[in-house]
Write a structure and sequence with these properties.
Blueprint: E1 8-9, E2 17-29, E3 32-44, E4 47-49, E5 53-56, E6 61-74, E7 77-86, E8 105-115, E9 118-127, E10 136-147, E11 150-157, E12 165-167, E13 176-178, E14 184-191
Parallel strand pairs: 1-5
Antiparallel strand pairs: 2-3, 3-6, 4-5, 6-7, 7-8, 8-9, 9-10, 10-11, 11-14, 12-13
């Protein structure tokens, strides 16, 4: 049997099975919102597509970790933060090659402050090592000014000049690509009707 694209199809292909457990706690009080969760996911019967056929894999993939989110807003200041820990991240497991291409730690935090027609923004991202790629730090900043229908903004991307490389997670190869440009400045002027 073949599918609509001409691939040989195993007549016994089953639906993928995914089981997820999550324990979460949320706190909302005043200007603060916090969420923390512990999670575990197990996937089996994953459908695999090769050049010549489609079938179910015998591999079982497990992911477990912790996620924390924070939102703080006070008047014209908004601060967001997120941290994720993946227990299996950046490990070489025989039956789960994809986990080697995932971060063990990811952090993201940013703030926006609005003062009249002025807006100031900053964002920081961190990703720990994965595959053959080291960790990265990415810091960006942006200033905007709104006057009637005109918007002017100045942004500086990758302020730290850190190289951010991304492994090829589509086919799990040794190939890597550059994730962001070196430090660059961008000036924009827009008119809105």
């Amino acid at each position: 049997a073949r599918n609509n694209f001409g691939f040989a199809l195993d007549v016994n292909v089953r639906a993928e099975t995914i089981r997820t457990s999550e324990l979460a706690y949320s706190y909302h009080g005043g200007s603060v919102r916090q969420d923390i969760s512990v999670f575990h996911t197990q996937a089996s019967d994953l459908i695999v597509r090769t050049q010549h056929r489609i079938f179910n894999s015998d591999d079982v993939i497990k992911r477990s970790g912790l996620e924390y989110e924070l939102r703080y807003q006070q008047d014209d200041l908004l601060w967001l933060a997120n941290a994720v820990y993946l227990k299996q991240g950046h490990q070489q497991l025989a039956r789960d090659q994809g986990v080697y291409f995932q971060h063990k730690w990811q952090l993201n935090t940013g703030a926006t402050y609005t003062w009249g027609a002025h807006q100031f923004c900053a964002n920081y991202q961190y990703g720990s090592a994965r595959a053959d790629v080291g960790n990265y730090n990415l810091l960006t900043a942006k200033y905007s000014y709104q006057a009637n229908r005109w918007l002017a903004s100045l942004s500086v991307n990758n302020i730290l000049g850190d190289e951010m490389w991304i492994p090829n997670v589509r086919v799990y190869s040794d190939a890597i690509v550059q994730g962001v440009d070196d430090t660059n400045v961008r000036l924009e002027l827009a008119y809105r009707r």
